[in-house]
TrEMBL record:
The active site is at 191 (nucleophile), 382 (proton donor). This is GH57. Substrate binds at residues 288, 305, 435, 495. Residues 456-559 form the 1,4-alpha-glucan branching enzyme C-terminal domain. It comes from the Bacteria. Residues 8-431 form the Glycoside hydrolase family 57 N-terminal domain.
Amino acid sequence: MSKIGGFTFVLHSHLPYARQAGMWPHGEEWLHEAIAETYLPLLEALYDLDEEGVPYQLTVGITPILGEQLADPLIADHFVHYAAERAAWASNDVGRFEQAGDATMRDLARFYHHWYARNLTSFNDRFGGDLIGAFKALQDKGRIEISTCAATHGYLPLLSRDSSVFGQIQTGVDAYVRRFGRRPTAIWLPECAYRPAILEGQQGPSVRRPGLEEYLAAQGIRVFFSETHTVEGGRPVGKAAGEAIGPYGGVPRRYAVALAPEEQAEPGTTFQPYWVGDAPGEVAVLGRNNRTGQQVWSGSFGYPGDAAYREFHRKDGVSGMQYWRIGGPGVDLGDKPTYDPGVALARTSEHAAHYVALVEELLVEYSRENNGQFGVIASNYDTELFGHWWFEGVDWLKGVLRGLAKSSSVELTTASRIIEEHAPQRVMVLPEGSWGAGGSHFTWLNVDTQWMWPPIHAAETRMEALAARYPDADGERRDLLNQVARELLLLQSSDWPFLVTTGQAKEYASQRFTEHCDRFNQLADLAEADGPLDEAGRRLLEGLRERDNPFPNVDYRVFVARQGDASLPGGASVAAATG
């Protein structure tokens, strides 16, 4: 049977900048947990499959700010200590449960002791402490495509200056090239937040601000991802019309869309990619397939809620180890039954087989209902779901990839390969939106977070002024301006308003936001003063360069004023330059 459809996992790997920014419960331990429970197990699974000769492919996103941290020697050193410490805690539990005469808990403690010991061996020996290098090797071999993101996961639609949108994307692309030795062709827009071209300005001449796809086209990026509703509610060109007024940090905006008003809207489908924007053939969008997503995310029937799987929320009062399983719906936390790793592993095999059959069924059905048209499924998830939140999730991923690699009807692929080999046939005008509450910007702009946006917008304008004042700084002045740019990027992270809105780490996120805002303004004050830095200024600069050190090659000049212009300097584009 010939392949009638393509499938790619799209795993979005991201954590906020947490280097030397606290430990437990919020801070650098976020990274240590994710390395131990997600990134290392994922690499183990992908390398195992490759060594078995399984011809798998998938898309793995690594945000630039996460990549900077995974490659940081300080974080690597801290992780080794973290894993060794937990192996020791589990070993202590073995003795504690042995003394209590509880053989079941003793054996579980041994399981965790060996699990963390394997973590250390894998990190140090199999991957040489270089997780980014390990992912790069898989991409170089053609097993994965690594997609990029904006530098610090900045929420692009709510940034007020196009210099900041450009700076976030350009810095992210530059970091990707430095880490992976090639340019990216796929990108995860932070929070799947998209904004089309708009006319902005209620008094005086309006400025046309480019749609986000225009920045991607200039960089040679071919595909981005969107939430399901964005595509299914999108408007194919020539099928709808509209001009809408909407809030933007308290400032009205007028959306300009050149469409035929007499025709009705026609929904899109996540089984097809679409060109986006005014230049068909440049940038495409892939929408998240909801049915496959719900099979994992659904609270009522999603796999991670199975009774056999490990309970995330109950932890041992002495060591913090998670010795219990979910046990079924409605089971109180204190009544959770003991975890059985062997039973849980067997369930992952059953769930993997079910998912493989679901993907095949969906693509066969789409082909049958659309005259044999080749359909695609992009199944998008936060990478940290697998292993961290759903302990058995990486084993499930491994089983799905192994199963689909054997499928006679489904082709395992990557996002960019879909666009290259099954190019979109239609152009779509996407609505503004995100994956957040109501598909809007509400999760990041609401009554609890609106105080964050005026300082961000003020910093954007101030950065433009500094770039104009010093068009070609060198020496200490250039170092200072580059650090101002780093603090702006860190200030713009979407994680801070997200954590405030969700309440997951409200006080921590507010503090981190305020710190980066203060650091930006302190450094900007120094940069605006003429003459060399005094001793206090040098101490401040050197301290922050060590503390906030991502993107060593950041160039403050990417923030030069460019309102209404998404092109590379000089009006060129990577796509044009490379043919």
